[in-house]
Amino acid sequence: MLQISIKNFSELSTKELYTILQLRAEVFVVEQNCVYQDVDGKDKKALHVIGIKNNKIVAYTRIFKSGDYFKQASIGRVVVKQTERKFNYGHQIVKASIKAIKNNFNETTIKISAQTYLKKFYESHNFKQIGEEYLEDGIPHIAMLKN
User: What is the domain partition of the chain in residue ranges?
Assistant: First the structure.
């Protein structure tokens, strides 16, 4: 089971921030072979949903209240360490993020920009595709909404 911790930017320790950025780069830049600007200045506005196993960060998302990223509340940078994916931590971190949006922002409508190949994964959390597929940093994405 994943231990979940939710922190705003100023509550993150230097070590936690470093580990989160390292995990994001490991998956989004190296594993997916995508050169893009991960450190985008938006982390300061986000709440950080951190999945911890054996005192190590293995899963992560950042969440935003409506208006801070999209018009609706949103979840982004959903990531699970490659060696930990077999344990369904992706589902756990998304469920924790949906709950955190409700508890912290009192919102239930959530918009995401999902990599297209994860459509069924997000549909299992009641997200529905809106609009057409588009390229984001060279990777096919779709907008999805959960009401």
Answer: 3-106
